[in-house]
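User
Please review the sequence:
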Amino acid sequence: KPFNNKGASSSSSSSGDDRTGGVEVFRLYFKGLFRNSGRSGAEIAGIGAAICDPEGNVILNVQKGLIGDWKSDWDVENLQLKVELKSLIEGLNAALSLDIKRIDCFCDYHPLYQYITQRWLVQQQRIGTVVDQVCLLQRKFDRSRTFHVARKDVKFAFQLAKGAIDSQITRSAESSHAR
């Protein structure tokens, strides 16, 4: 079970059961990454998300590269936050498409966790707009909670995001080589 993370949830019972009132609680692990692709100086990004059932079994993976104008007018300091938000949005949309009613989201990026849990006040409108989008998605669930965890606890989602970036680099190199 790749995501047996019983200790992260404060409401888990001593038996380790992740059900509340007979309704299953699913888990969303997500990660967004971006990096400079090298000589071209282009920044590329990838997102990964894994939805797990209450027993920790992966039931759906989301892996995709962010292509096109994903940076829009965001400043460099907030690009990591933007791809993290995009990965959470993709994961929540995937969970909604599976008709999941209760979900716990596991995040390793501290600023995102602080914004989503409303511990930090959003100062920039661009960030606020996307955080609001996440909050609207979360309201579509009967219950949605977010937990801050160590990077090792989102390792699988990290690998999905890294794979999405690597595939973009490979495609770019193949396309350059073909020319």
About this structure: The radius of gyration is 17 Å.
